Amino acid sequence: MRVLVAAVGKRTEHWEGFFAALAASQDLEVDVVVADVTDLTVGWLEAIARRHPDRFRFRVVHHLMGEDRTGHMASIAYAPGSWRTWPDRRPDVVHLIGEPSYLSTAQAIAVRDRRWPGVPITHYAAQNVVTAFPWPFPWLERRAYRRIDLALPITSAALDVLRRKGYRGAAHIVPLGVDRRRFAPAQEPASGPFTVGFVGRLEPHKGIAELLGASRAIGSRLLIVGQGSLAGAVRAEAVARPGEVQLIPWSGHDELPALLRRMHVLALPSVEITQRNVLPWVRIPLREQFGRVLVEAMSCGVPCVVTPVGEMAEVIGDAGEVVEPGRLAAALARLRDDGEHAANLRSAALARAELFDWDHIADEVRDGWRELVTRSTQSRSRPMPARAGVS
Question: How far is CA 288 from CA 13, 47, 265, 321, 332, in A?
Fold first, then answer.
């Protein structure tokens, strides 16, 4: 079975484990087309292609209006004529990573219509807020809904948004995953002084101020991995609390597992904000769509403490605690002082991480593709009914 995957934007790096799992499948041939991605993404695509040269190929195509220019992936557009560099072979399925409203989604659908009419389309979706985008994005979105054969939202909230915005087709929830071979627990739980961890962008909506205050209040160590506008505040905290606060810039997936294993707990005290980064008069609620680092932490045996913002509570289930803003310090102190509670959450985290194994998720998606291909083949082979007067 041949699958063409089209993806745009910096978040394409979230799918490294998915692509690797697909490439390892003996019955798949995968072509990936990407645009406006990071050098890190290109690096791991090259590594997968080297491991599976007969089953995995990729190409980076030119784009217009990148995410860095506009602040939103919806505006990323493939450069005119770039579709000519896409693979020539007819795929059995076209899989799109990018919301239905994106310009790149409309372009990828147009390529399918022009070159491979009738090939089924599947679509990833993560948007967990119903947002009224300016024209032409709503029109593009409705047009995409009519062509998608199977939607693959990453959470129940993303599925709800699809339904509320008019998608009536088949859908199956497929979460983001984790490479459990790479993100594996240490032989023993983290030792030494109680350490609270954070991985993510250092921005106000991530709850950085409460994180710093809670760590200070309970006297814990703080290990922060990330970059952003509040990096200065973190560095100032490190100066005020020498030896207790450590800031590490973004790390690759090769370094992150070891950093997570140094943490006794991962805290993501996010808050919801409204952004205006596309057009100043368009208010876009910003809340956590998933929290990929949560499944990576759970796979390392690290319990999580989150706020009830976005879909983080759904992701961690019983493998952590959900606290209201302002209650972070109390939850962290309990994990520090109650060894039995902490051990129970570590066990729950490891068990829950199994649900997010990329190999398992790739199997689910592959099963959905096979069903679509079978249905499409049967439809093409079914004889046309005779019309009146025609024999």
Answer: 17, 30, 19, 16, 21
Query: Which tens digits make up the pLDDT trace of 270-296?
Result: 987 665 554 444 455 566 778 889 999
Helix or strand (DSSP H, E) at 321:
strand 320-322
Report the half-sphere exposure of 193 (CA within 13 A, side-chain side): 13
pTM across the whole model = 0.86
314 and 244 together in one domain: yes
Tell me the per-residue pLDDT of 235-273, one tens digit each, with 9 for 90 and over. Answer: 999 999 999 999 998 766 678 999 999 999 999 999 876
Counted domains in the chain? 2
| 206 lies in some domain | yes
Parallel, antiparallel, or unpaired for β 63-64 and 77-78?
antiparallel
Nearest Cα residue to 298 out of 175, 210, 194: 175
Residue 274 host element (H or E) = strand 273-275
CATH of the domain at 252: 3.40.50.2000
In contact, 83 and 57? CB cutoff 8 Å: no
Q: Assess whether 364 and 345 both reside in one domain.
A: no
In a domain, 388, yes or no: no
